[in-house]
Each structure stands twice: as structure tokens, then as C-alpha cells.
Amino acid sequence: MDECTGSTAYDASGNGNNGTIYPVTLGNTATGTCASGTTTEMWNDGTSGKFNSSLGFDGTDDYVQKSSPSGLSSTDGALGAWVNVTSLPTDYGVITGVFENSADADQIYIGALNVSSTLRFVIVRRTAATTRAVAYTNNSFTLGAWYHVTATGGTGGDVLYINGIPQSLTYSSGASSAEWTSAITNSYFMAGARQFNSTPEKYLNGLIDDVRIYNYALTANQVKNIMNEGSAVRFGPASGTP
After folding, report:
1. Between β-strands 92-99 and 188-191, what pairing exists: parallel, antiparallel or unpaired?
2. Which helix (H) or strand (E) holds 2?
3. Strands (E), the chain
4. Which residues contact 164 (CB under 8 A, 6 or more apart)?
């Protein structure tokens, strides 16, 4: 999210999974440029990111989408991003995730959740229209602050990290601690919204930076290293064993 102009969010991994930025027609109406001063531009909204710039989402119809992403696993994986939630969603707003182009197919995503007018973070797994597992943080968080949110999982179960700290979670009825599924190989990789019945929905109001997806589960140390990669002060060598 450091391009600061244009309608493409480029993939820095080398896998070519570049996302297309959609401001659509409400709230933000253009991608624009950083520091333009135009409040209806996504890049202007994200002029100040967690590290360098970010991208602003208006909570109404903004999203980033990559169709048919490549290089993803069918079993293990991880999703993550820095996020600054501006206002609470009606129920929840999606930070990032992978989705089938159908209501009754695999989806897995992380989001901001409104629980009794408090901000929580959530990981959601859907395997069918009526089968959805939700796990959200027991702790509440502050609007207008940056948080590093990562969900990682595989055959050993899932973990939701906030600022590198594994969270205690409340699970929906029928869910358990081992919820990561084959939802990593799907039609769309998105940020700021989810895909449902071919239509984006569940928009996030806030800033998103440094979106990542992995085709393997991350360890706790890896999550912390990723969180600290963009910081101005780094303790340890640039490469090799710390």
C-alpha cells in the first residue's frame, strides 16, 4: 500500500497477485494520490499509514480485489494486515480474506467486529451458506489506533494474533479451535470487503496497510518478525539468525 497513486496495489512477493483498487461511487469516488487534500480519494485518506502510506476505505463500497490468486495452499495458511478502524461497522467489516464466488462455498477472512458497541477482531470461516464458524477476541480495542491483525492456522488449529500476541477467543456455536480449512484456494483475494454471491459486501471503514497472505502456517515468532519488519528501529541483523 505504498504506491500512493493509481488503481493497482502491487504484490511485493513476486507471485504477481496484484490487486485492483475499487473506490466505486459512494464516499470515496476516486483512487487519487497521497496528500492531494481531496477527501474523496482513497490514497489521500491513506496518506499516513502505519509505515509510509496506506489505503483508505470508506466503509460503504471501497475494496481491493485480486481474481484467481496463484500460489496458495489448500490446507495451511495465514492472513494479516495492519488496520486502523475509523468507526464501528454495523456488524463487521472485512480486513482481508479469500473467497469463492458463491454464498455456499469456502471463505476465510479476518475483520473488525462490533460487539455491544466495542471493537473486537474476528476470524470467520464459511464452508456453506448455513455453515459459518466465528471466533472473536475477548478483549476490546480502540478506534483510531493501528493494530497488526494476523490469523494463522493449519492442521493444528487456528490462532488470531493482535500486535503479535495470541488472543483468547469466543467461538460461535459449533465452532472449535481447529477451524482453518481448504478455503485458501478460492476465486478472490480481497481487502476491505468480502465477496458473497458475486457481490462485494461487509465494507471496512478505516485504513489498511501491509496486507499479506501466506500458503503456510506462521509461528508466533514469525508473526512478531512480520509485525516489526517495517519499523524504524530493528534489533538484530538485516538477515540471518537474530
Report:
1. antiparallel
2. none
3. 8-9, 19-22, 55-58, 63-67, 77-85, 92-99, 107-115, 118-128, 131-137, 146-154, 157-162, 165-166, 169-171, 188-191, 194-196, 199-201, 205-214
4. 148, 220, 223, 224, 227, 228
pLDDT, tens digit, 9 for 90 and up, residues 9-63: 998 888 888 999 999 999 999 999 999 999 999 999 999 999 889 999 999 999 9
Furthest-apart CA atoms within the chain: distance in Å:
49
Tell me the chain's radius of gyration from C-alpha atoms: 17
Contacts with 207 (C-beta within 8 Å, 6 or more apart), sequence order: 45, 46, 49, 50, 54, 55, 56, 57, 83, 84, 86, 146
Q: What is the rounded CA–CA span in Å between residue 135 and residue 110?
A: 10
d(CA 112, CA 92): 5
Euclidean distance between CA atoms 56 and 62, whole angstroms: 8
What residues are paired with 148 via a beta bridge?
82
Q: In what order do the strands lie in the sheet with 19-22?
A: 8-9, 19-22, 63-67, 188-191, 92-99, 107-115, 118-128, 131-137, 169-171
Burial tier of 209 (Cβ tally within 10 Å: 0-12, 13-18, 19+): buried
Which grid coordinates are listed for 22? 475499487
Query: Which domains are delineated in the chain?
Result: 8-228 (2.60.120.200)
Q: How many CB atoms neighbour CB 87 within 10 A?
A: 14
| Degrees, nearest 5: CA angle 44-46-49 | 140
Q: How far is CA 169 from CA 80, 96, 153, 209, 226, in A?
A: 17, 19, 14, 24, 22
Instruction: List, for residues 57-67, the tens digit of each pLDDT value.
Output: 999 999 999 98
